[in-house]
């Protein structure tokens, strides 16, 4: 059954099961647009690319929240981190022209603009800033696990050793396998997400 996404002038995102509508507040889009304009002044092309990728990130997050909630999927552990991982995986696999080099900028914009959801009312001992940092580092790890050779400056800045990069590759594969298992009964046979459960060849450093 299709889910319709509706942007409305409210304060919170929520799902209306009666209408199968995912309602997303316009204020989130406004905050994201303001963020990219502040971070990339006088760079219209970059602003647009980061903003569009941030919106895509938002939509993947909301879709995952709806699916987890409606089907009571046992994501386990930190639910928000699991949903973050799903959104990052979906964007890494995106074939819609989103520039992957802007993925992390878009993730940061999304995290700063959209508060974390406690799906089952769990309380976090971390401050909001600590939560954003932890969630961003997860996205960084998954992106570098996919192909760290695309981000030599980031790897150098983080001073991550090969051992850390290998751990990120393993974390990426674990996230793919976990979500493939969770979604297997809900996906069409032709869905590319079914392939997430397959072990992918490891990238070799140059």
Provide tags for this entry.
7 helices, 6% strand, 56% helix, 206 residues, three-stranded mixed beta sheet, mainly alpha, globular
Q: What report would you give on this structure?
A:
It is built from 7 helices and 3 strands, in the order βββααααααα. It has helices spanning 26-39, 44-71, 79-92, 103-113, 128-147, 152-158, 162-183, and strands at 4-8, 14-16, 21-25. A hairpin with a 4-residue loop joins strand 2 (14-16) and strand 3. The model is unreliable at 117-123 and 201-206 (pLDDT under 50).
Topology of helices and strands:
Layout: E1 4-8, E2 14-16, E3 21-25, H1 26-39, H2 44-71, H3 79-92, H4 103-113, H5 128-147, H6 152-158, H7 162-183
Parallel strand pairs: 1-3
Antiparallel strand pairs: 2-3
In short:
With 206 residues, this protein is mostly helical. The chain has seven helices and three strands.
Mean pLDDT: 80
Supply the helix-strand structural class: mainly alpha
Spatial gap, N to C terminus: 46 Å
How much of the sequence lies in strands comes to 5-15%
Q: What general outline do the C-alpha atoms trace? A: globular
Output the radius of gyration. 17 Å
Order of helices and strands: EEEHHHHHHH
Could you tell me the number of beta strands?
3
Helix content estimate: 55-70%
């Amino acid at each position: 059954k299709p889910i319709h996404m509706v942007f409305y002038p409210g304060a919170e995102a929520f799902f209306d099961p009666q209408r199968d509508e995912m309602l997303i507040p316009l204020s989130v889009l406004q905050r994201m647009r303001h963020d990219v304009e502040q971070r990339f002044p006088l760079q219209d092309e970059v602003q647009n690319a980061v903003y569009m990728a941030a919106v895509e990130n938002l939509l993947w997050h909301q879709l995952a929240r709806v699916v987890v909630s409606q089907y009571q999927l046992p994501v386990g552990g930190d639910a928000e981190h699991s949903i973050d991982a799903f959104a990052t995986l979906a964007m890494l696999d995106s074939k819609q022209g989103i520039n992957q080099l802007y993925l992390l900028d878009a993730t940061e914009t999304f995290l700063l603009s959209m508060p974390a959801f406690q799906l089952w009312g769990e309380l976090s001992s971390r401050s909001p800033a600590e939560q954003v940092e932890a969630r961003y580092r997860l996205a960084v790890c998954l992106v570098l696990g996919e192909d760290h050779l695309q981000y030599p400056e980031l790897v150098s800045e983080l001073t991550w050793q090969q051992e850390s990069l290998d751990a990120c590759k393993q974390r990426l594969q674990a996230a793919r396998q976990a979500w493939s298992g969770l979604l297997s009964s809900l996906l069409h046979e032709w869905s590319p997400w079914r392939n997430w459960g397959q072990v992918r060849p490891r990238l070799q450093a140059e």
